[in-house]
Write a structure and sequence with these properties.
Elements (H helix, E strand, L loop, with lengths): L1 H9 L18 H15 L4 E4 L7 H4 L8 E6 L11 H13 L4 E5 L2 H11 L25 H9 L18 E3 L3 H6 L2 H7 L4 E3 L13 E3 L8 H8 L4 E4 L1 H7 L3 E2 L2 E2 L26 E4 L2 H9 L3 H29 L4
Parallel strand pairs: 1-2, 2-3, 4-5, 4-6, 6-7, 7-10
Antiparallel strand pairs: 8-9
Helix pairs in contact: 9-12
Length: 336
């Protein structure tokens, strides 16, 4: 929602957000029709509707296309069929709409992986090119975000969040360790780094810009695309990541009784598939490490010159990302 608030403000749109009920991912025909009946007037008051995570939310509109007035943009953020695998009618509906209803629906992948996954499952190509997140989050636009407090709290109070902060000085100049499973289960990064004399914070952040005050952010990726891959660039955050070879070597293994998790439905990662991971696209603004020992060494040797150079590349990439994807959104919304 933050990502799109910036887009809509830039394009001078009137807009609002509606957060779908939490925890409901399997969107049956009955659920879709029930929501449509309840909110039809609201939905039909718009010129465009954009659905994001998850794509099956678009079923609300696909099932009711005859009554649908706005144009629907389906921004596929986490597999178009997330939690819909047992339902063949969903695949048939999605394919039919994609083929026959381009006047009412535009289907857009948010990473190249999503387009490849769709083609593999549906045996057809998506018409529209990838539009990635832009990653610009202006705090003054938070007033538009539906259920913001609930969303923030679910992240900062996640079970993996070992710490929380009230003021930025509590995380200033520390290594920020994410709340995700690879960093807390497969590896116990906080303990490992602190054992090596590196100060850490291990929790959820309230806003991506908060990470600006940290020394760096460290994570072991678990998906082909994350919003933070782009937010960290726009906020000029130094990010430490395992090298492609190191990550590929980890994916088929277990540690601390936990298997390394990467959301790849095609199986284990390899040096070809890892190229689709957005964390590795903008390499000049990242710092990659080949082992835990290498991570510790590179954190301790992090210099002002390296920080300045990485942030310079963040600014270069940030402008490129914004310009490319804003132009693609203009095409979607037919903005001249």
């Amino acid at each position: 929602m933050r990502d799109h608030a910036y887009i809509y403000e830039t394009l001078k749109f009137d807009y609002s957000f509606w957060k779908f009920p939490k925890g409901l991912f399997h969107i049956t025909k009955d659920i879709a029709n029930s929501i449509w009946r309840d909110k039809k007037s609201y939905f039909n008051s718009f010129d465009y509707i954009v659905t994001s995570d998850t794509a099956p939310l678009s079923r609300i509109f696909m099932e009711n296309i005859d009554e649908l007035k706005p144009h629907v943009v389906v921004w596929i953020c986490n597999r178009f069929d997330y939690n819909m695998e047992p339902d063949p009618s969903f695949y048939e509906l999605f394919a039919r709409v994609h083929k026959n209803n381009v006047d009412k629906f535009t289907i857009v992948p948010f990473s190249d992986f999503e387009g490849i996954y769709y083609a593999n499952k549906q045996t057809e190509l998506l018409y529209h090119p990838t539009i990635t997140p832009i990653g610009i989050n202006k705090r003054e636009l938070d007033i538009h975000i539906d259920c913001l407090k609930e969303l923030q709290t679910s992240y900062t109070d996640d079970p993996n969040a070992k710490q929380s902060y009230k003021n930025l000085d509590e995380i200033s100049d520390k290594i920020f360790v994410s709340i995700y499973g690879n960093d807390n289960g497969f590896f116990k990064l906080k303990e490992m780094l602190e054992t090596n004399g590196i100060q850490c914070f291990n929790g959820g952040f309230k806003h991506p810009d908060d990470l600006r005050v940290c020394k760096a952010y460290v994570t072991f990726p678990d998906a082909f695309s994350k919003l933070l891959a782009f937010e960290s660039i726009q906020s000029e955050v130094i990010v430490f990541l395992p090298s492609e070879r190191f990550l590929v070597s980890l994916h088929p293994t277990s540690n601390n009784g936990t298997q390394y998790w990467f959301n790849n439905p095609f199986g284990y990662l390899n040096l070809e598939s890892i190229k689709l991971c957005e964390w590795y696209r903008y390499e000049k603004c990242r710092i990659y490490f080949d082992s835990l020992e290498d991570l510790v060494s590179k954190i301790k040797q992090l210099s002002k010159e390296t920080i300045d150079e990485k942030k310079r590349w963040c600014r270069i990439y940030g402008k490129e990302i914004e310009e490319t994807n804003m132009n693609r959104w203009k095409n979607v919304f037919r903005v001249k």
